[in-house]
């Protein structure tokens, strides 16, 4: 129960110190995000990628700083629970006029759970649900930008309005031909607004900051007319001469879902009120979970908080059981899911078979690599949790047996809270969006029969995109390691995405070699490897027997991606990366590019 009076003098000081810690974090986070504009203007692509990686570490650094301060100045861990009740109440009071209250609550949780014993991780001491509303927040600073700008064009002034929208971002780099690009945008927009009867509220709303990622800047907004609205995004890129051009016009929820995919790197966006950006984006993409929107904006810890709240809510209002996930079982990860919830849960097994020459620490480092790296739309983002407690009754017996057989060191079954309810406490857990394993997706097509045009199309499309996925990973300096079909999944939008990270390496750390000719007839007839193999040696010619056993699959693959079976392809890509080349990987189909950009491809 909460105290009736706030009578612990140190409680306010602890709450204030915690908020100071958060404010320092968000100030540094926002400053680094704002610098993305200058890096874009100066074409500092390596700096942009480095900043994207380093910014991910900011949060944990600031949490550790805050914990050290609280222990040093207030002996926080020795304070009684009556003091911690009051700390939380004071903290809530400090957030009433704050511009990032939801992020500050998550920061409070992170700091508190580092200090208090885990048996106290319940709603009395942390924010299991939000205490401060994020509705209608805007900065009270007279010089602050609004979260979005609204423009009210007339039909005959639409071109001028679009030019005004672009000019509003004050990019310090000239456009190659802005008039031409606006013409492209209008031509792409025209079929979508041709049937409009313009209403009194006809307007264009645009978020005030550009969204920066890798070599692109994205203008995000919507066209409103009457009761309808049309989301849109305009990618802005550099040409070879360092001038800017608009590369495409993306319209509608599906285009924006691809742009904000969970398989892509986080954006860098200068936001004073992040909840206002999230609310705006949620209106453009109502199917996108708010947790994924926060993560896409680089606020991954807030994404984790919202995801966990959503999962607890779903558990409360569902009754199905957690089960072993469908598909081929892995040798390193144990995977389970809840059929009614669109995510999978993965934990590292305690022991691996001899053919898996790796350790728990190495596997964890691979997942960290993916978190920090540009995922180019081909590697699923992963939420990482510690000490996750779930009701024992929601685990199927088969899953419980699997957990205790393969990961007993990661599992504790107890009544942690003393409420008479058994819980399964998992020490370390990864959570990813559920996809259809590619091997099962292909099998569906085979089962339907390739004489069926739809089944054949499904097979061909997925095999082609599988090869495209590998090439996109290569462009991002990633060698996936184990390229079996089962390690890739198909998203809701039909895109092939890689999700098994325990064998990935940087492409530039690998040695791509040709298989040496046999020394004698015995070598030629032998099923054994007769040549010396180093720890990071890769022989692309040997991929085919493992991947292309089905003749129909082989025919499609060889028609589109035969180069993946040659060492020359891999060596050439490695060389380009080593010479500093940053590949273009577009979050939209090539056919959507405007002629000026497409001509450069």
From TrEMBL:
Reaction(s) catalysed by this chain's protein: L-seryl-[isocitrate dehydrogenase] + ATP = O-phospho-L-seryl-[isocitrate dehydrogenase] + ADP + H(+)
EC number: 2.7.11.5, 3.1.3.-
Residues of the active site: 381
Record keyword Kinase present: yes
Localization, UniProt: Cytoplasm
A single GO cellular-component term on record: cytoplasm
Domain (Isocitrate dehydrogenase kinase/phosphatase (AceK) regulatory) ranges: 15-319
Domain Isocitrate dehydrogenase kinase/phosphatase (AceK) kinase: 320-589
Taxonomic superkingdom: Bacteria
Keywords, ordered alphabetically: ATP-binding, Cytoplasm, Glyoxylate bypass, Hydrolase, Kinase, Nucleotide-binding, Protein phosphatase, Serine/threonine-protein kinase, Transferase, Tricarboxylic acid cycle
Xref: Pfam families: AceK_kinase, AceK_regulatory
Binding residues annotated for ATP, in chain numbering: 325-331, 346
UniProt family annotation: Belongs to the AceK family.
Reported function: Bifunctional enzyme which can phosphorylate or dephosphorylate isocitrate dehydrogenase (IDH) on a specific serine residue. This is a regulatory mechanism which enables bacteria to bypass the Krebs cycle via the glyoxylate shunt in response to the source of carbon. When bacteria are grown on glucose, IDH is fully active and unphosphorylated, but when grown on acetate or ethanol, the activity of IDH declines drastically concomitant with its phosphorylation.
Designated name of the protein: Isocitrate dehydrogenase kinase/phosphatase
Species of provenance: Paenacidovorax caeni
Species lineage: Bacteria, Pseudomonadati, Pseudomonadota, Betaproteobacteria, Burkholderiales
